[in-house]
Every structure is written in C-alpha cells, then in structure tokens.
C-alpha cells in the first residue's frame, strides 16, 4: 500500500525494488489488503538489486499516470514496467491492451493538466512592497498539482501566489515554490475586484447569432464551472441570445449617423488618368493601379521601372518575381543577384541604368508555400507595352538591352528568337539601339556547370558590348 | 476622448471585436518570466482559458482600441455610417486590463485591433504603443497579436513585428469585386502590400539571425507566430472556389500561418444589402476542412473542387469524403502497405491516425481490431480500406455509399 497516493518517487522506489528482486506483477499487491508480497518489510524487496533500465519515455509517462485517481494504477503501471524491462519495443506496440490503457490514462492526465492550466482563476489577496499576491482554489480530476505548479511558476514569476486543491497546495513566495497539505475553498477569497470586468468581457465577446452549446461544453465541461466566475453568466446569456438576434433582424436600417461627415475627412486619392502622367513618379503610381489585364488580381503590387530619368541604357527584363513582387522593386531576387554581378563584371554601374520589366505584375501559380513563376503570354506582354512605351518615352535611352524573349517582345512587339537577334546591334524606330540577350534566370536554371560558365561569359560579353556602345 | 467608465468601454469594444474569428495563441517561441522576473509565458501551445456559449474559445483579451472608424465597410458594425455606440481606450487602459486579466489567469494575452482613426499610420502607432508599454515597461511575456492596419508605413509594421507574436491583416472579402463594392476604402493591393511587408520583415529577421557574428547577441525575433488573415464568408456572392483560390494565393505569397474563415454574422443596424440570415456556420466549417486538406493532406485546390458542385463545397458531407466518392477508383487502400500520402486520402483518417498506423504496422500487420485502437472512426473508413481481415468488396462502389454518410434531409435543411 502506498502511503501517498500519486507520489511518483514512492511508487518508483517500490517498483525499482520489486523489479530488481524479480517479483512478477501477479505476485504483488499494491492495495496491501490482498494476498501476495507487500511492499514494505518484505523479503523479496531485499533481494540483490540488479540494475534495470527502462525507456526514458516510459518513466515520463509513469510520472504523469501515477497521478491518476484510479486505484488500479500503481499495479497496472508495475505490470507495464515489468513487461517493458523484457520487451524494449513495448511502448511502440500501440495495439497492445496494456499500452493502449497506458496511453489513454496518460491522455486523461495530460488533458486534466491542460484544463488546470486553463481554468485556475486567481483572486487577489493584496499587495506588499509593490509585489501583488493571489490565491486560487481548484479541484482537478486527478492529483496533478505537482505536474502543474512549475507551469504557474514560469508564468507568474513576478507575483506571489498559492493554489489550493483538496489534495495539496502549491505556494510561490519569495521566489520559492513549496507544497503543503490540501485545503478548502473558503481559504481563498470568494471574489475579485476585476471579476466584473472579466464577466463583462465574457458577455460582450459572445456572439448570440452563433450559439453552439455542445462545442462549449465539450471543451469546458460543467464540472469546472463552479470555479469559473464567468460560468454563472452562461445560462442568462443563452436565454437572451435568441431575442437579441431577433431584435437585430427586426431593427430597420437606420439612417446614416449624422456624425459621419465629420469623421470622413479623408480626401480620395487624386484620380490621375493614365494619359495625364507627367513624371516617372506619377507613372509608377499609375502603373500600380493598372487593371488592364487580370494579372493585378493576385500580384502584391505592380513593379515599375527604377533608375535615373537621364539613364542612357535601359535594361528590360521579363516580369517581377517573388521577391520583386513583395518589395516592389525590379531585380532584387535571385535573378537580380546574377544580373548585379554580371553588370559589375561588365563595368556597368547599376545606379546609372534604368531597369524595368516587359510585364509589371508578377504572374505565378501557387504551389503549397511557394509561388511558381509562370511565363506571361504574348497577350499580357502586349497589353503591358502601354507602360513600357511610357517609360521609354520618359527616359529616351540611347540603348535598350532586352533580357530574354518576353523583353524582346515587349520592346519590339514581335516574337523573334534571341538566337537570331543576338550578337548584332539593331536599330529601333526613332534611332534607339537594341541589344538582345538572355535573361539572367536562364543562367540559374542550367544544371551543367561548364555550360553555365560559358553562357554567363557570353552574357557578360553582351553587357560589355552595351557599355561600349552607349559610351 | 470620452469619459465613459471602463466597464462600459470594455463592453462596447469587446462587443465590436466579437466578429473576428481568430483567437489562436499558439505557434510562437517559448518564453517565460523567470529571467525577466515579470509576468507572462508562452510555451508553444496556446491555452483556451474559457469558452463562450457560441462554442468559440477565449484565449486572448480580444478588443478594439476604438470603434470609431473613418472607413465605411458595409459588413462592419463599426463603419462610419453605423449608429453603434462609440468608445475609445487609451493605450494605458488596455495595458492595465491586459495585466489585470493575465495575472488572474483569465487569458493568454492580448489581441488588439482598432477602427481607423485620423490615419492608418496614427492608428498603427497607437496599437504598437500598447504592445511597447506591455513589453518594455511591464516585462510582459504573454502572447500579443496585433492587427496591422493596411496601408500603414512599413516602418511601423517592422516595429509591430518586434513586440507582437503574431500580426494579421484581414482581407475581409475573397474577391476584388466584393471588396470594392462592400469596402470602398479598402484596397486589395494595400492589404497585400502590408502582408508583403510582414513577410519581408520576417525574412529579414531570419537572414539577420543567420548571418550574425559569433558572440554577438541574437537579433530580435519578428512576429514569431507568423501572420494570419480573415475572410468573411457569406456576406457577398463569392463561391467557395473563389475563397480557396484567394487562400492558396495568400498562403503561397505571404507565408501565412492561418487563414480564418468567419461566417458572416448579422450585425445590428446592418446595411440593407446584406443577408439578415443566420450565419452559414456549416459552410464555414467545410471551408476550414478544405483548408486543412490544402495544408496538411497534400490536396490541391482543384482536387478539392472535384467533390464540389458549381464552385461550392458539399454541405452535407466533408470535402475529403466528397472527393473520395468522386474518385472511387483510388480505393480501397491497403492499410498495411499504402504509402503515407495515400493513407492521408482515406476519409476518416486524420494525420495523427495515419502517423499511428505507419508506426504500428512496422511491428506487425494490422487487423480491423487494431485499427480501432488507432482511430476513432473505423466505421467511416470501412468502405475505403483493406486490412488483413477486412475487404470492402462491393461496398466501395455501391451506389448508396453517399447516403450512408450524408445526414437525413431535414438536418441538411437546418445546416443551410
């Protein structure tokens, strides 16, 4: 018979002795009154101790399950420990009856612990030297105070508190946690100064239009209600719910609040027609409002071109990628990184270039946690040309470098292959020169290292040619 | 500022917050008050401290700083043209309430939102100020969820991320059209930009942590419980397919931790073009189930919609079952052999049950009796599985399979 039910240390030392002595579970009585070996002063316990090792997980579970109020627990636990000493895989055998029982008992304890973490309600005792003190009365289903007290210690370090239960009490004072004997409800104040506020909150946060009593009771069983100050309001709230919804439904829509105009002081965004755009900055704002094609629906924002209006070279990419879409700037993602390095190698200063894209909104396909880039259609590129042409009109570059096929389409309006266009300098209507090269993301996708190095070299060579041409 | 007593303000400003579905307080970093000697801890898993009779948990003090608002979103009780009674808390009042409630173990922390007053930036500053006082002046270690104000300066969002565990920006309505007709001042692109700045802030903090010099202090965490959003279901004509499309875009684009679906609840003094009906709670439930399939079961949106009709999920049976009934050729699945991905597609088997099955079958072949110990819903899975001692035979293809699961017709009518 255990002197302190629920005391893990006592059970463990008893079980350890029995296990070392090789006493089979069926020969032990944990109740004391029945036949078989008793736990204390018995010859079997004195038998030579052989070290018995048990899985750590089992000991952790046992420490919880011993708190269970079922009188059979010490005996069943011992049987499992006995079996586990002979079968290292025992805990994994979830279909075994003992293991199934153990898991269920453990679950019941963990649920009880969780509910105690949730439903303890402290009441204020007073304050001394700037330190507040509180007390709570709680009736857990099992003997779990020692399992829960460290949680409250971690949470409420900066105040003094005591939790009184019928079995035991935990006290946190002077930064020390101690335990004492069980107590009664009247040791704890029966009300608290902010309880009215809490009950007001509880009533106000309840939405009478979606009553779901079963869902509430499943998570907050009635047995806890007597210690929850808000629980006394459940019945009246429910009783009034239907009428409240009915009143809402019946209430005719009233006229707008006369104060409305006073509040509404904001001036609507200045409506700027796309044709009236006067500066590059205005252009960027106009682009961000673009709804010419459906791409705007999913993208975060339009990414307008970036760079000085006096730039001699304009670099045109395909469309913003994931990072560009988030940050609202062109070429800041992985491909932008490749471009930056290549520009530097070619002796081009990025800050003196005008960087933009043929399509201003990011086109993608969501796939789990990522957005997969999708090529824009020629229709989308042609639609977006409106903006690219405007940017060209502002910057009036001497030279345009197109990166990839979409950029080439965006600038020329024709779908020519890069292969056929590359290596020579073309002249656009109005005298602007054009150099067509690959998109830097192409370099990121090449698996063959030698090939990637060659392509990169050719890419840098194109950029060098651009630099010389614009000089 | 109004001189209303605190109880009255609390009543008004909690009432105004009750339509927000989110109340989670989990998924953040572990923190306690031992080192700071202050108050408050978070241990990864949030705690629901109470439940309202509407079945929803109460884990946080969920309130508005003010329900004054310059916006006029028609689905919102706090819209400028509403005749609702107004109130406003000072940041200090919210701090005191939070601490008072927290010390009595009523709550896990604070979920603070606000109507928009003066400007987006001013409102956001006020929200951040509450979090700052709690963290810096009171060494508060509990959970803080701040609602970001769409359109606020990214620098304010960055500051909010330093104090808050979670940030959220509500998209409100799933489609552009819905938003522009119901919330004329809210711009979808502004909402998305704000979400983007939260994601960028989080990624920058991670990069800073990775590239930190050895021996230097860890840079501060940025909203470690991530960001979330809420969509209102049933206020406009959006279909479930539209809603899930928006959700998948948001998950992939802004790395959202959660999308909350909130059944549109009739509000007092409602705008006349809104449905005065009961909130579509079952529809909300089905959307959550579909959302789960997307995130934890490897389903694509298009697959989920196979079991739907006209872009709407089946209200009488859950979306996984609806999909399975359309895809009978994929069943039965052998419990003892099928890979994890296939087991996850069996109606009635959740992720936990699947993990248990995969672990248990390593130690021996499973029978139906064994399965009963691993999952609570053996009856439901019967037509879709094979075990050592069970084959469904013609059951899998039987014409009345749907009827076995669908509730009787009158109950269906109630669910609508």
UniProtKB/TrEMBL annotation, chain A:
CDD domains: UDG-F4_TTUDGA_SPO1dp_like. SUPFAM superfamilies: Uracil-DNA glycosylase-like. Coiled coil: none annotated. The keyword RNA-binding does not apply. InterPro entries: DNA_repair_put, DUF4130, UDG_Type-4/5, Ura-DNA_glyco_family4, Uracil-DNA_glycosylase-like, Uracil-DNA_glycosylase-like_sf. GO terms for biological process: DNA repair. Keywords: 4Fe-4S, DNA damage, DNA repair, Hydrolase, Iron, Iron-sulfur, Metal-binding, Nucleotidyltransferase, Transferase. NCBIfam families: SAM_7_link_chp (TIGR03915), UDG_fam4 (TIGR00758), UDG_fam_dom (TIGR03914). Belongs to the uracil-DNA glycosylase (UDG) superfamily. Type 4 (UDGa) family. PANTHER family: TYPE-4 URACIL-DNA GLYCOSYLASE (PTHR33693:SF9), TYPE-5 URACIL-DNA GLYCOSYLASE (PTHR33693). This is Type-4 uracil-DNA glycosylase.
UniProtKB/TrEMBL annotation, chain B:
Transmembrane segments: none annotated. Residues 64-195 form the Radical SAM core domain. It comes from Sphingopyxis fribergensis. InterPro entries: Aldolase_TIM, DNA_rSAM_put, Endo/Exo/Phosphatase_dom_1, rSAM, rSAM_sf, RuvA_2-like. Keywords: Iron, Iron-sulfur, Metal-binding, S-adenosyl-L-methionine. This is Radical SAM superfamily protein. It holds the Pfam family Radical_SAM. Its cofactor is [4Fe-4S] cluster. It comes from the Bacteria.
